[in-house]
């Protein structure tokens, strides 16, 4: 039995010294000390040893086990140390490098301007309504008192899907769809993307955004329109802002006007931004044409109202003093992180 234990010990030492990975070292541990290992088999054979020899054999078995376990643990510690040192060499960290930062985005200047306009009108009791960007010719033109031969329907100005469907040129079709529902009175704004067949330059784009407003009720006058837009201008550009209405023509409103505000840069004294005039044009407006009301199923003898349209990009350009519309869409982080 003593010779057998000596052979087991020598073989275990040989295999431990020959193991070059932790996996192989574990295989040696199982082969000699596991439930079905060679040393365990010797212990199971203790029943065949005479009673007077069992203490001595038991001591030899324990000494052999301790020797094998000690060598296994020592070898394992050496392997782990070598592996750890190799990993530290491979995973070295240069503490002089700048730390990684998470770039957190923020709202686009168009979004900031839109939310500000919405906040102002919602505070006045308006609701925000959206509609389709691909629109029927009827809602985009005819229901707005723009007949078939009108210049606004020219293919040079409008993107046509087919003869009856267009990419909307304004968000006014949303107003028509709302009027057709017949839920009066109406106080709404319709923000959204619109499309015109324009060349790209500092002030034009084939795709841009508009915010159109509509009020329909009994006994609405032009004075209501003026008061609404004056309050809007003061909240958007400052309490000292004044408005000026100039006669104009829009097919779907009568009378119509364009609205200027005192330059918020110079206070109306004249500067580069207002080109020395002291005034800046911001929107168009007017009283809703009776034909538009009639085509939408509203009696113009009982109800009337006003409408206005604001270019969102124009508001953003003016408010943040941006001199080129293209900057809003070039996704230059250096520009966008200013807002």
UniProtKB/TrEMBL annotation:
Mg(2+) binds at residue 254. One of its GO terms (cellular component) is cytoplasm. One of its GO terms (molecular function) is catalytic activity, acting on a protein. Its EC number is 6.1.1.20. This is Phenylalanine--tRNA ligase alpha subunit. It catalyses: tRNA(Phe) + L-phenylalanine + ATP = L-phenylalanyl-tRNA(Phe) + AMP + diphosphate + H(+). It comes from Anaerobium acetethylicum. Keywords: Aminoacyl-tRNA synthetase, ATP-binding, Cytoplasm, Ligase, Magnesium, Metal-binding, Nucleotide-binding, Protein biosynthesis. SUPFAM superfamilies: Class II aaRS and biotin synthetases, tRNA-binding arm. The gene is pheS. InterPro entries: aa-tRNA-synth_II (IPR006195), aa-tRNA-synth_II/BPL/LPL (IPR045864), Phe-tRNA-synth_IIc_asu (IPR004529), Phe-tRNA_ligase_II_N (IPR004188), Phe_tRNA_ligase_alpha1_bac (IPR022911), Phenylalanyl-tRNA_Synthase (IPR002319), tRNA-bd_arm (IPR010978). It is found in: Cytoplasm. GO terms for biological process: phenylalanyl-tRNA aminoacylation. Its main location: cytoplasm. Residues 117-338 form the Aminoacyl-transfer RNA synthetases class-II family profile domain. Belongs to the class-II aminoacyl-tRNA synthetase family. Phe-tRNA synthetase alpha subunit type 1 subfamily. It is an enzyme of class 6 (ligase). Binds 2 magnesium ions per tetramer. Transmembrane segments: none annotated. It holds the Pfam family tRNA-synt_2d.
């Amino acid at each position: 039995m003593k010779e057998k234990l000596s052979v087991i010990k020598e073989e275990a030492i040989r295999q431990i010294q020959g193991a070059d990975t932790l996996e192989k070292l574990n295989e040696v541990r199982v082969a000699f000390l596991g439930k079905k290992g060679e040393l365990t088999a010797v212990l199971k054979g203790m029943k065949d040893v005479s009673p007077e020899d069992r203490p001595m054999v038991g001591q030899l078995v324990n000494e052999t086990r301790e020797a094998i376990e000690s060598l296994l643990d020592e070898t394992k510690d050496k392997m782990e140390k070598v592996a750890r040192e190799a990993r530290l060499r491979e995973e070295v960290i240069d503490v002089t490098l700048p730390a990684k930062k998470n770039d957190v985005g923020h709202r686009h200047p168009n979004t900031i301007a839109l939310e500000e306009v919405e906040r102002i009108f919602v505070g006045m009791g308006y609701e925000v309504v959206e509609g389709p960007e691909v629109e029927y010719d009827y809602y985009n033109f005819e229901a707005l008192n723009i007949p078939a031969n009108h210049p606004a329907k020219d293919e040079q100005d409008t993107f046509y899907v087919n003869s009856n469907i267009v990419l909307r040129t304004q968000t006014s079709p949303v107003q028509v769809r709302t009027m057709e529902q017949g839920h009066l009175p109406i106080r709404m704004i319709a923000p959204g993307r619109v499309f015109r067949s324009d060349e790209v330059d500092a002030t034009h784009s084939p795709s841009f955004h508009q915010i159109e407003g509509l009020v329909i009720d009994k006994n609405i006058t032009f004075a209501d329109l003026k008061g609404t837009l004056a309050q809007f201008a003061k909240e958007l550009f400052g309490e000292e802002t004044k408005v000026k209405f100039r006669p104009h023509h829009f097919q779907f409103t009568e009378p119509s006007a364009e609205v200027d505000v005192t330059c918020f840069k110079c206070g109306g004294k004249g500067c580069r931004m207002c080109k020395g005039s002291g005034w800046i044009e911001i929107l168009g407006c007017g009283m809703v044409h009776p034909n538009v009301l009639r085509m939408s199923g509203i009696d113009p003898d009982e109800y009337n109202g006003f409408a206005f349209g604001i270019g969102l990009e124009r508001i953003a350009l003016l408010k943040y003093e941006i001199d080129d519309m293209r900057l809003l869409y070039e996704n230059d982080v250096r520009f966008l992180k200013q807002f």
